[in-house]
Amino acid sequence: MQRLEVNDKKFEYPFVAYIPDNFTENLPLIIQLHGGGEKGNGGEDLYLVERHGFSKLLSEKEYPCVVVMPQCPKEDIWLVQVKLIKKFIEQMQEEYKVDKSKTTVAGLSMGGYATWYLGTTYPDMFAAIAPCCGGGMPLYATALTMPIWAFHGSDDDVVPPIESLNMINRVRKLGINDNVKLTIFDGVMHDSWKPAFIEPLLNWLLEQKK
Question: Structural domain tally of the chain?
Answer without folding.
Answer: 1
